[in-house]
Write a structure and sequence with these properties.
This protein has 18 helices and 34 strands. The protein is an alpha/beta fold. The chain folds into three domains: 193 residues, Rossmann fold (3-Layer(aba) Sandwich), CATH 3.40.50; 148 residues, no CATH class; 236 residues, Metallo-dependent phosphatases (Purple Acid Phosphatase, chain A, domain 2, 4-Layer Sandwich). The strands form six sheets. Strands 1, 4, 5, 6, 7, 8, 9 and 10 form an eight-stranded mixed β-sheet that branches. A hairpin with a 2-residue loop joins β15 and β16. It is globular, with a radius of gyration of 27 Å. It starts with 8 loop residues before the first strand and ends in a 7-residue tail after the last helix.
């Protein structure tokens, strides 16, 4: 079974010893909740650290489970009630109702309730109250331990014990641990009492839990001013630092106020820029006080640059040992592996230097509040978008829309970099030059503002104009997946108007691959809603039969795969059987191949009868004549509510999933120094903002 935690666990280096057990240095003893599969050694663990002896139970599908009486007494062993597909009530992995199911039902993680973060000054941050340690040894170890204890007495959970049962139970706990981590709940993993605790360090997650690097100070008395500061969230003893235009070297922990202004950080001679992330058109109460870290030069017309985001509550270790940051910024050797820690505490930055040789220095970049201006490059990008799309982000008139679609279809008949099939028609393959890096967008599912956000950021339009990138959209730009929007087809029609306009403007630099939603198939449905048929009917109503027929032609003309010597991109995943370059080109002759490329999903735990595997990915690369390390970037899989990308998905090196339809904002993959780096943007109501912008007078 695929282990979703494989290769994303990092040992926690700063530890404290409590009754013979190594625990993270910033963890308070009474925060600890211990869970894991049967036979992992939880009861022995609790006895060792002298926690509460009785086992507890919480149903993760119930609202307010975080207030359950079982969690009052800590540290404590807790069994988890988990949601499974087709079963209304939550079950533990040793419940008879679960074990008797054949095949056993898959996890339904979306039903797990997430405790509130408590952003207000008088609200409780339930996520900070608990730290869940998942004790998850290897399956063979647990199986052996459960076999050994059978001789000591009767344990009902060990009835009909098999290694396969143990593997499935452990797989479930691994997926639950990862899901809770992504949801912002404090989680770490231990493979055994003699093993060190490990934190989850997933894909582009540069943050480190504060309890993994910072020892918590003792709580001051409420009889003192320090005690009241503690109550209001000023928990870390750090001196306030007023930034000026003079370079200041930090000697101890310092605190920078979130005042809407940027500053530069010098790590020796290496310079980073810190800017508050100010989103446009968002209610001030909804603004997240996040910070962006980027290089001072910013983006330019020849390449897109990466950046890192520090969200409220996150802690980041800046240095060469943080792989995700090093891929973006390419730190020089004089930057230490762990140069400093940085915590975003309700918008204020807490900075703690770790390197004494080169140190950390700060300087104010400017005194202009970002709330008082819109960067010139961003404003220019929005104006260009308004011009590009005809002065308004709105549905095109029927006659104009038909002309646009027919023009694009004519382009697709002889699309640049497209190979024709044996019948002389446009084949299923786009072969792009390796010298031009891609920017890859996943499913957008009618989230028009997400497309506009991507186009308005990071000099993407400049790079398209200068032929510096190839923009690849992985299909499924239509049909909203939001519960209250699934029957609204106007946003899907507008999305396609915009994409067709992009293709017309940049025919050799913008490519749209076919997805499973790029069809009028009546069987295409979501939540019981036949979105394919609804789309056809709405287009018929707005634009007539000629347009519907031309859109069917558009679907038929779309390619299925784009590749170069360093990557492969398609909507869903590799086929389940061998496929060569010639097979992809002549895909019209193989409906099953087309079906696989647009509908297959990665095989996960409890879904062993369906989905593609590491072997399928390997065979796909080989069939296309590409080397072992070639990246495969796909969409189709919506992941979970907390992530838009998954690097090395399924523990398959170089296999990445991208999803760009989240309401919170889109993500894309770009290439920085031959590394595929995911970039995420916050959502903004750009349709409204662009339509309100006044175009400059014509010269």
């Amino acid at each position: 079974m695929n282990d979703p935690l494989k290769k994303i666990l990092s040992p926690i280096k700063e530890l404290q010893n409590i009754r013979g057990i190594s625990l993270p240095i910033g963890l308070e003893f009474l925060q600890l909740v211990i869970t894991g599969p049967p036979g992992a050694g939880k009861s022995y663990y609790i006895n060792q650290i002298r926690g509460w002896p009785n086992e507890g139970y919480i149903d993760l599908t119930q609202n307010n489970w975080w207030k359950n009486q079982s969690l009052v007494y800590r540290p404590r062993e807790i069994h988890l009630g988990l949601p499974f597909e087709g079963i209304a009530e939550a079950l533990t992995v040793f419940d008879k109702d679960y074990l008797d199911c054949q095949p056993r039902p898959a996890l339904e993680l979306s039903r797990i309730r997430i405790p509130p973060a408590g952003d207000g000054p008088f609200s409780t941050n339930w996520r900070d109250r608990y730290i869940f340690e998942f004790l998850i040894p290897e399956p063979e170890v647990v199986f052996s331990q459960r076999q050994a204890r059978q001789s000591q007495g009767y344990f009902p959970v060990d009835d009909n014990l098999s290694l396969e049962m143990v593997e499935q139970q452990i797989a479930i706990y691994r997926h639950v641990a990862l899901y809770m981590h992504r949801a912002g709940i404090h989680v770490y993993i231990r493979k055994g009492l003699s093993n060190p605790p490990m934190r989850i360090n997933e894909h582009n997650a540069t943050n480190v839990p504060p309890w993994a690097v910072i020892a918590r100070p003792s709580r001051p008395s409420l009889k003192t001013a320090a005690g009241w500061k503690w109550i209001f969230g000023l928990r870390t003893p750090a001196s306030w630092l007023t930034l000026t235009n003079e370079v200041q070297r930090i000697k101890g922990s310092s605190r920078i106020a979130h005042d809407g202004k940027s500053f530069d950080m010098l790590l020796g001679e290496f310079r980073l820029r810190f800017s508050p992330e100010i989103t446009l058109g968002v209610n001030k109460k909804a603004v997240k006080k996040n910070w962006l870290i980027h290089l001072p030069g910013g983006c330019h017309t020849t390449a897109m640059d990466g950046f890192a985001r520090i969200r409220v509550g996150e802690t980041v270790v800046i240095g060469r040992s943080t792989k995700e940051l090093d891929e973006i910024f390419h730190f020089p050797k004089h930057v230490a592996k762990r140069h400093l820690t940085l915590t975003n505490q309700r918008g204020d930055l807490l900075i703690s230097p770790l390197d004494e040789i080169h140190g950390v220095s700060l300087v104010r970049r400017e005194n202009l509040d970002l709330r008082e201006r819109m960067p010139a490059s961003r404003h220019a990008a929005l104006i260009r978008l308004k011009n590009l799309f005809g002065g308004s982000i709105s549905l095109l008139p029927a006659s104009k829309a038909l002309v646009l679609l027919r023009t694009v279809n004519a382009l697709l008949e002889n699309e640049p970099y497209r190979v024709h099939d044996n019948d002389g028609r446009p084949g299923g393959l786009i072969e792009l030059p390796a010298s031009t890096p891609p920017a890859i967008i996943g499913d957008m599912h009618a989230q028009v503002d997400n497309l506009l956000k991507i186009l308005s950021e990071n000099c993407l339009l400049d790079c398209l104009n200068s032929n510096a990138i190839k923009l690849i959209i992985l299909g499924d730009a239509v049909h909203s997946e939001m519960a209250d929007e699934m029957e609204d087809m106007d946003s899907s029609i507008l999305m396609m108007d915009l994409i067709l306009g992009l293709k017309l403007q940049y025919p050799a630099n913008v490519f749209y691959l076919r997805g499973n939603h790029d069809s009028f198939d009546p069987q295409l449905s979501k939540g019981g809603i036949s979105q394919g048929l609804l789309m056809r009917n709405r287009l018929q109503e707005l634009r007539g039969n000629d347009y519907v027929q031309e859109m069917e032609r558009f679907y038929d003309l779309l390619p299925y795969v784009a590749l170069s010597s360093s990557y492969i991109a398609c909507h869903a995943g590799p086929p389940r059987t061998a496929a060569s370059r010639e097979d992809i080109i002549n895909i019209r002759r193989d409906p099953q191949l087309a079906h696989d490329l647009t509908t297959s999903r990665l095989q996960l735990a409890n879904s062993l009868t369906s989905g593609y595997t590491k072997g399928d990915v390997k065979r796909f690369r080989t069939g296309l004549g590409l080397p072992k390390g070639t990246r495969l970037i796909v969409g189709h899989t919506p992941l979970d509510p907390f992530g838009s990308f998954w690097k090395n998905a399924g523990v398959i090196k170089g296999h990445h999933i991208i999803y760009s339809a989240h309401k919170e904002g889109p993500s894309i993959f770009i290439v920085i120094r031959n590394k595929f780096v995911p970039i995420s943007y916050p959502s903004e109501p750009l349709t409204k903002i662009i339509n309100r912008l006044r175009l400059p007078p014509a010269k």
